[in-house]
Amino acid sequence: MACGLGDLWDWPLSRFRDVLGWPESLLGSLARYRQACRSPGSAAVPGHVLLPMDACWPESLSGLDRPPLSLQWCGRRDLWPLLSSRQAVAVIGTRRPSVHGLRMAEALGRSLASAGWPVVSGLAEGIDAAVHRACVRSRGVPVGVLGTPLHRVYPQEHRGLQQSVAETGLLFTELRDDARVRRSTFALRNRLLVAVARAVVIVECPKASGALHSAAIAQSMGLPLWVVPGDAMRHSSQGSNALLQGKASALVDPMAFIQALGTGPVPCQDSMVSPMTRKPSTEKLLQQVNDGATLEQMAMRLQEDPQHIAKSLLQLEIEGVVTAMPGLRWRSL
User: Fold this and answer.
1) Tally of CB atoms within 10 A around 10
2) What pLDDT does 8 receive?
3) Distance (Å, whole) CA 150 – CA 236
4) How far, in Å, CA of 293 to CA of 154, rounded?
């Protein structure tokens, strides 16, 4: 069956039913969407909309129990083939994490970015925002799956972060601009972010959490599920810790996790920078911090310019990862 996307746009509903086997609920949504988009004398598909049968449409979405009718998106179109082949990692968790959870989310965002893996999350408060901020700061590729239309920002304080994700990566949602936002729409986005991922990481979540719904979807799809162990007495870790009693793998070291994944599909920007100007690896730098090394010792052991190391340490101070100590030493927070 050879046809262009424009031809699909004009198919009668009965043909979608007969050829693609779409249910009546999906056909009704399609009819309403086409009516909303159609202008007199034109049946063009909007450029920011992705439809089933588009060359970039992720096939894994079509296999969902409730497949999306369309995707509204903005950002880098070249990332769609990576999502279609599930070459990304989803990292999610609670909106009210512990300090440990935030630090692990940030470490994962940095590590995945450095390894060339697109980082998928829901841009919610807490873990989602932490992993995406770290990914953006590390010049990685963030992918945000929204529970709102593209023009909406929730929560409002994430406006700058959402803009950064759109500029450096990709934002998408199944909600049209005129769609009403309900509590259920945030839960429904979970199936989308899982469906484009190769692996799912739960950093921290309580027993009543949308992250557990994502974990169930991942397991039903046969995807690897990784969980960061948390404080057994902490409410926000009880849901994620419970997953470790099943088939989930414990994630205690971000670098070991990266080694298990392998190299990601996106060329690391640091590999294109001259060795004289390249920033030292954050993980190696933190190891030196934990060993109590001075700035001079770090430069000698890492074979890096002391000025570059000092700049990296200053950035880690700003991010709240380390604090300066007497004698040109630093301590992890």
Assistant:
1) 10
2) 72
3) 30
4) 42
Q: And the tokens for 178?
A: 């005129």
- Asked if 93 contacts 126 with a C-beta cutoff of 8 angstroms, the reply is yes
How many angstroms separate the Cα of 166 from the Cα of each of 73, 227, 300?
9, 27, 39
C-beta separation of 74 from 26 below 8 A: no
Any residues with CB less than 8 A from the CB of 140 and at least 6 apart, and which? 109, 110, 112, 113, 114, 117, 118, 119, 168, 169, 266
So what's the pLDDT on residue 244?
95
The confidence score (pLDDT) of residue 268 equals 65
The answer to whether residues 69 and 24 touch, using CB atoms and an 8 Å cutoff, is: no
Token duo for residue 48: 């920011």
At 46 the pLDDT is 54
User: Distance between CA 98 and CA 265 in Å, rounded?
Assistant: 31
CA distance 135 to 90: 12
- Give residue 41's pLDDT: 41
> What per-residue confidence (pLDDT) applies to 278?
44
* 239's tokens: 């849901």
Residue pair 132/121 in contact by the 8 Å Cβ criterion: yes
- The tokens describing 296, both together, are 């001079």
DSSP string, 142-209: EEEE-SS-TT--SSGGGHHHHHHHHHHSEEEES--TTPPP-HHHHHHHHHHHHHT-SEEEE----SS-
Residue 332's H or E segment, with its range, is strand 329-332
Rg over alpha carbons for the chain, rounded to the nearest Å, is 22
Residues of the chain with pLDDT under 70: 1-7, 36-47, 268-280
Please return the burial class of 315, using the count of CB atoms within 10 Å of its CB with bins 0-12, 13-18 and 19+.
Answer: middle
Q: How far apart are CA 95 and CA 154, in angstroms?
A: 12
Q: Report the 10 Å Cβ neighbour count for 130.
A: 24
Residue 313 is encoded by which pair of tokens? Answer: 């340490």
Cα 163 to Cα 49, 143, 214: the distances in Å are 18, 12, 25
Instruction: Give the pLDDT of residue 38.
Output: 58
